Amino acid sequence: QVQLVESGGGLVQAGGSLRLSCAASGGPFSIHYMGWFRQAPGKEREFVGAISWTGVNTSYADSVKGRFTASRDNAKNTLYLQMNNLKPEDTAVYFCAATRRGYGPDVTYDYWGRGTQVTVSS
């Protein structure tokens, strides 16, 4: 059983940057594929990005491509999401998730964190 805890959210002005972290415990983090998702008020949860268990392969939603970067440190059991050039439409609760099935938007993720709020002001 993998437990995930996100941190690093907050309030930032448009054009600013934030780095989210996702600390994993309770399971073999290094062999799990990891994903980032977000949910804005009144909207469905959407895929943001994903990373393979080695960290070599990544996948991103078109809306964040070129601005967000996922990375991981398997020695620290931690996943990161570097978010640059933030826009008001990036405002949402951001969740990390883990799976052993593969990576990408269409994979079923088995473990989820509780999320961290990101608010981007215009």
Record the SSE blueprint.
Layout: E1 3-7, E2 10-13, E3 18-25, E4 33-39, E5 46-51, E6 58-60, E7 68-73, E8 78-83, E9 92-99, E10 111-112, E11 116-121
Parallel strand pairs: 2-11
Antiparallel strand pairs: 1-3, 3-8, 4-5, 4-9, 5-6, 7-8, 9-10, 9-11
Provide an overview of this structure.
The chain has strands at 3-7, 10-13, 18-25, 33-39, 46-51, 58-60, 68-73, 78-83, 92-99, 111-112, 116-121. By secondary structure, the protein is an all-beta fold. The protein is globular, with a radius of gyration of 13 Å. The model has no long low-confidence stretch (mean pLDDT 95).
Number of strands: 11
Query: What is the percentage of strand-forming residues?
Result: over 45%
Report the total helices.
0
Backbone structural class? mainly beta
**Helix coverage percent of residues?**
under 10%
Mean pLDDT: 95
- N- to C-terminal distance: 40 Å
The H/E string reads EEEEEEEEEEE
